[in-house]
């Protein structure tokens, strides 16, 4: 009878970020502004790259796709979170919850692969500058981007498929502001041990692979820079790579803590803070991180503003 009732469950409740009524309006306004800035910043960066022929090179092609994924990730999480600040009922249909997680998993995983691809691109550009046009051809760039999205799609399919084996009867309250996989495991009345193992194996492998790609690429870049012993070259290389390293560091820290740490160490409030960082904060920071110290992007923005004051 318990199993039968569990399979009839069609709705869950998202608790959201706060239970305190006095914080609802300030937090709503704060995250609304952040979301609007995220969309304007990332879509503006895409438009800038699209309209300037000088930015039609691999580095900016990858950056444009990263901006698209950041806007996608934020749009997967933020609208529902904003609505729930004032919604009388915080119910979410189980089908919508699964769809939200599926979209979230694609975007987060794709961003991991894109960050690794961008690190490889900088390695080739700095360590093998003469061969760069040959190695990083348009065909290879498109293939790497497609593989990044395909990897995100396959990773989302794997976890969503294993989610379908779970039933929810212990509780319908999800202590989170969006449908993430770990909070769903916690309210499952089916043993989620296999699901935890799948998360550890696949999410851990993807994060380790992409982090190693970034570390190896930038280690080789560092050795190449030090060999040149040129102050101008060192400044230029660090200016180019520094933004990417900052973005990678900010992104992977909370992600590793969320999905690869021991299960017993997980706390609901800490999980939400970590998730808030890489789903809300990072997408709004990335356009600024990559644009403010990038001379080509700034010059392109100036030219566009002169054409369209």
TrEMBL record:
Membrane topology according to the record: Multi-pass membrane protein
GO cellular component assignments: plasma membrane
Protein name: Olfactory receptor
Family, per entry: Belongs to the G-protein coupled receptor 1 family.
Function: Putative odorant or sperm cell receptor.
UniProt KW keywords: Cell membrane, G-protein coupled receptor, Membrane, Olfaction, Receptor, Sensory transduction, Transducer, Transmembrane, Transmembrane helix
Transmembrane feature ranges: 27-50, 57-78, 98-118, 130-158, 194-225, 237-260, 275-292
Predominant subcellular localization, coarse grouping: membrane
Domain G-protein coupled receptors family 1 profile: 41-290
Gene3D superfamilies named in the record: Rhodopsin 7-helix transmembrane proteins
Pfam families in UniProt: 7tm_4
GO MF annotation: an example: G protein-coupled receptor activity
Subcellular location: Cell membrane
């Amino acid at each position: 009878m318990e199993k039968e009732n569990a399979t009839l469950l069609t709705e869950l409740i998202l608790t959201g970020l706060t239970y305190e009524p006095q914080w609802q309006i300030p937090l709503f306004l704060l995250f609304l502004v952040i979301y609007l800035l995220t969309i304007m910043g990332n879509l503006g960066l895409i438009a800038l790259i699209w309209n300037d022929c000088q930015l039609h090179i691999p580095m900016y092609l990858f950056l444009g796709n990263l901006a698209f994924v950041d806007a996608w990730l934020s749009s997967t999480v933020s609208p529902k979170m904003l609505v729930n600040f004032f919604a009388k009922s915080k119910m979410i249909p189980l089908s919508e919850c699964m769809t939200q997680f599926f979209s979230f998993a694609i975007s987060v995983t794709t961003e991991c692969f894109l960050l690794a691809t961008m690190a490889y691109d900088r390695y080739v550009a700095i360590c093998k500058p003469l061969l760069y046009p040959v190695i990083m051809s348009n065909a290879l760039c498109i293939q790497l981007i497609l593989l990044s999205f395909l990897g995100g799609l396959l990773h989302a399919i794997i976890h969503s498929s294993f989610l379908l084996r779970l039933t929810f009867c212990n509780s319908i309250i999800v202590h989170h502001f969006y449908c993430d996989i770990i909070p769903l495991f916690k309210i499952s009345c089916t043993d989620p041990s296999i699901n935890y193992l799948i998360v550890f194996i696949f999410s851990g492998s993807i994060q380790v692979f992409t982090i190693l790609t970034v570390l190896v690429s930038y280690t080789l870049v560092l050795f190449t820079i030090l060999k040149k012993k040129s102050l101008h070259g060192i400044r230029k290389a660090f200016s180019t790579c520094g933004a990417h390293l900052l973005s990678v560091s900010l992104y992977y820290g909370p992600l590793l803590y969320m999905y690869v740490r021991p299960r017993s160490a997980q706390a609901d409030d800490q999980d939400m803070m970590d998730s808030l960082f890489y789903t809300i904060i990072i997408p709004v920071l990335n356009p600024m991180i990559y644009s403010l110290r990038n001379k080509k992007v700034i010059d392109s923005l100036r030219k566009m503003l002169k054409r369209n004051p």
